[in-house]
Amino acid sequence: MEKELYKVIAESKKKGLRTFVFTSLGDKDYGSKAVIREGELVWISKDTSFFKENLEQIKEINKSGMVEIAGNRVYVEHICNTSKIVICGAGHTSIAMIKIGQMLGFEMVVVEDREEFAAKAKNAGADRVCCEDFSSALSKFESDYDTYFVVVTRGHQWDKECIREILKKPYAYVGLMGAKRRVGFVLDAIRSEGYDEKKIDEIYSPIGLDINSETPVEIAISIFAEIISVKNAKNKNVGYIDGMLEKIESSAERMVMATIVGKKGSAPRGVGAKALFLKDGSFVGTIGGGKAEHDIMVKVEDILKKDDDMQPYLLNVDLTDDEASIEGMVCGGRIEVLLELV
Fold first, then answer.
1. Helices (H), the chain
2. Which of 90, 54, 81 is nearest to 69 (CA)?
3. Is residue 121 pLDDT above 50, yes or no?
């Protein structure tokens, strides 16, 4: 796989742009790729006509997984960034959210205009804390479609400041905490200022799933439950973890990228999970460990011993046999793994 492609993917992740990578796994131009970013073709494999001929159709696809295009099997990968949660306000619920967010792997960002409260957010482990006026901080903040905004300020006037700036930006979720009267006051004020009615209607309020929560920790759990529900419904790929693209860019050695493109039954990782295998036997990322990774590594070792180019290779791993049971994967299942030379 050409390194230029990874540069395009890295740029898309850095800028938080909607990006889909298409890989032909059928008879037509097998192994060829195309990248659609914000609805436009920005990269395509050399010597391929399939994606050019079906460009309008692939532009319409907006979710990941295996699809059929013009009778040809195609794997679609929706590139995503590390999910960020931006909490506006640093009260008790925010502190609980910071701690839970760390365990869930979110990047936790807090905006708070009071130094004392901002310090508490920093001490709780927030990745970033912006201590300044809400409007000013949010106007400068660069969000993307993997950013989740949680507005839990101390009053409706600050809620309005936050919502005004957030609705101007790309985001995955906006949640607003407050009593019905307070929230209604804020949203009516925003409507009167001419903001998009559709965006206002999409604001989650009351914030969080209804689990009869009472304490700040319980409220934080309810908010995360709602955010996770929204995040996982988007059907994005886990894909390129931190350090993977950087390794490809900085190294001239021969490597193999393994990607789960199909799954049946139970398996440790889902479609889109990746692992980058290096010549020294190390790897970045995981596709689930145990038998799955063992079978892949046997094939990868064979690929890396050779100096010639190779076509992308589809490896089927059966996790339901006796060996899988020995590895502890008693639930079993089958995965289809795409191996590509980098």
1. 3-15, 50-53, 55-59, 92-104, 115-123, 134-140, 156-166, 180-192, 197-201, 216-233, 244-250, 290-305, 322-326
2. 54
3. yes
Report, as an integer, the average pLDDT of 314-322. Answer: 75
**Sheet of 84-88: strands edge to edge?**
128-131, 107-112, 84-88, 147-151, 173-176
- 127 three-state secondary structure: coil
**Residue 184: partners with Cβ closer than 8 Å, 6 or more residues away:** none
Residue 97 corresponds to which tokens in the numbers above?
């959210």
d(CA 216, CA 212): 12
Q: What's the CATH number for 84-233?
A: 3.40.50.720
CA of 187: how far to CAs of 213, 219, 333, in Å?
24, 22, 48
Strands 107-112 vs 128-131: parallel, antiparallel or unpaired = parallel
What are the start and end residues of each CATH 3.40.50.720 domain in the chain?
Answer: 84-233
The Cβ of residue 324 has, within 10 Å, a number of other Cβ atoms equal to 20
**Main-chain phi, psi angles of 72, to 5 degrees:** -115, 135
- At 237 the pLDDT is 56
CA triplet 232, 237, 240: central angle to 5 degrees?
135
Mention every residue, 6+ apart, whose C-beta is less than 8 A from residue 286: 269, 273, 275, 293
Write the burial class of residue 315 (CB in 10 Å: 0-12 exposed, 13-18 middle, 19+ buried). middle
pLDDT at 124: 96
Is residue 303 within 8 A of residue 325, CB to CB? The reply is: no
Cα 178 → chain centroid: 29
* Number of alpha helices (DSSP H) and beta strands (DSSP E) in the chain: 13, 15
Quick one: 307 exposed, middle or buried, by C-beta within 10 A (0-12, 13-18, 19+)?
A: exposed
User: Are 162 and 151 a contacting pair, CB within 8 Å?
Assistant: yes
Q: How far is CA 38 from the centre of its chain?
A: 16
Is the pTM higher than 0.85? The answer reads: no
Cis amide prior to 206 (ω within 30 degrees): yes
